[in-house]
Automatic annotation (TrEMBL):
Species whose genome carries this gene: Ligilactobacillus murinus
Location(s), subcellular: Membrane
Matching InterPro entries: ABC2_TM
GO CC terms in record: membrane
Chief location bin: membrane
Name of the protein: ABC transporter permease
Membrane protein topology class: Multi-pass membrane protein
Keywords: Membrane, Transmembrane, Transmembrane helix
A Pfam family: ABC2_membrane_3
PANTHER family documented for this protein: ABC TRANSPORTER PERMEASE (PTHR43471)
Record GO terms (molecular function): ABC-type transporter activity
Keyword S-adenosyl-L-methionine set for record: no
Length: 418
């Protein structure tokens, strides 16, 4: 194989790919999705209607204390009587009103209105009443504010991950299952869009060259295998570039938004210290190996058609296979990662790049993940070797009868060539 020609072809494909709109969309798509999510959340927060509830009690001190509490999407105001509350309710100045009484040291409350408040509003009211009752009980028992705070302090509960070293020693680390799940879920989505992007690009590239009838000129200066592998190398280099660019932009985004309250709250609930480097490495390897596997498959499908316009139809099998793995990962694996079907499919090359990271994040051993990765890499190499041979015999075949007719013709030619 002429490595100089291989690199020239790869460089040409790489330049075309990184300049394409699909590449730029792929790089910025994760951030567009996150930005849209933040905007939707902000719009929903701002657009959320505030429920106004009147508070009445025969003991005004109770109504006053309750009305002072600040609750999300809820405005509490004291009213002088039930009739006044009903009058304001009829005038639509109140959404509901609450009558609070105290009997035997316990607060008894009833909400009235044309419509009973939703569950979220009822939960907020319950929280406010619980807080008020705690304060009243503290007064009866003559407790100080510090003593009340101490009584209200929740018990601490944390999780520890347990593992065993090769020499039998026990190793514990902080629970990082939430972070692992989030990373594997993100890898699942990223791999899906990465595969769809590059499968389409490489199929269009190969089918476009056949459609322009320039393959004879190209193959006069290099052989078909070098040309095929050069295109694959160019695509995988573009995928690596997109992966690095996405990681860089993600880091820049986190740095810019370091003072964002929602982001800090989310990061505070995630424990990154318990993540092993092997988990991140395996995640990246599955993304790259999976992308290369489907790129080879898409290149083979693209070489079976004679026009660039037919490339989308040619890669439909690739799309369906990837979609099946994606749906299986998002619907089944995320809810039941130990499912028998998920376990089996996580070792099948067509689905393992989607399923195994999710299974790994939910407690699967590194050995199983490594075996799955080896199967995926080996399958990719075998598929690449087979596809290169198929490419050599069908790259000059201009069959107008469809992809399956082209496949049968190419297999017949391959058998004769052997």
């Amino acid at each position: 194989m002429n490595f100089e020609k291989l690199w020239v072809i790869a460089s040409d494909v790489y330049r075309k790919t990184v300049k394409s709109p699909s590449f730029l969309i792929g790089v910025f798509m994760p951030f567009i999705v996150v930005l849209v999510g933040f905007l939707i959340g902000a719009i929903m927060d701002k657009g959320q209607e505030t429920t106004t509830i009147g508070i009445y009690s025969k003991q005004p001190v109770l109504a006053k204390a309750l009305a002072k509490q600040k609750l999300p999407a809820l405005k509490l105001k004291q009213v002088d009587s039930v009739k006044e509350a009903q009058k304001q309710l009829q005038a639509e100045k109140l959404d509901n009103y609450l009558v609070v009484t105290k009997k035997d040291g316990e607060l008894l409350s009833t909400v009235y209105g044309e419509k009973v408040p939703d569950d979220a509003t009822m939960a907020n009211l319950q929280q406010a009443l619980n807080s008020l009752q705690t304060s009243l009980k503290a007064g009866e028992y003559k407790l100080t504010s510090d003593q009340v705070a101490e009584l209200m302090q929740p018990a601490k509960l944390e999780g520890k991950e347990l593992s065993f070293t090769d020499d039998g020693k026990v190793k514990t680390s902080n629970d990082s299952s939430g972070v692992k799940f989030a990373l594997s879920y993100a890898a699942c989505i990223f791999t899906f869009f990465l595969v769809l992007t590059y499968a389409s690009l490489i199929a269009q590239e190969i089918a476009g060259e056949k459609g322009m009838r320039i393959m004879e000129v190209i193959l006069s200066s290099t052989n078909a295998k070098t040309h095929f592998y050069g295109k694959l190398l160019g695509v995988i280099l573009a995928a690596l570039t997109q992966l690095v660019a996405t990681g860089f932009l993600l880091g820049v985004s986190v740095f810019i938004m370091r003072d964002n309250g929602s982001l800090n709250e989310m990061l505070a609930n995630l424990n990154f210290t318990g993540i092993e480097p092997s988990f991140i490495i395996l995640l990246l390897l599955f993304i790259l190996a999976g992308s290369l596997f489907y790129a080879v498959l898409a290149a083979l499908c693209g070489s079976l058609v004679s026009r660039a316009e037919d490339a989308p139809k040619a890669i439909m099998p690739v799309t369906y296979l990837m979609m099946a793995g994606y749906m299986l990962g998002l619907i089944v694996a995320t809810n039941d990662p130990s499912n028998f079907i998920v376990t089996i499919c996580s070792y099948i090359p067509f689905f393992s790049m989607i399923l195994m990271p999710i299974v790994l994040a939910n407690g699967a051993g590194l050995m199983g993940a490594s075996i799955s990765l080896v199967i995926l890499v080996f399958s990719t190499l075998v598929l690449a070797a087979f596809s290169a041979r198929m490419y050599r015999v069908n790259v000059l075949v201009y069959n107008q009868k469809g992809i399956w007719a082209s496949l049968r013709q190419s297999l017949t030619m391959l058998r004769k060539d052997v």
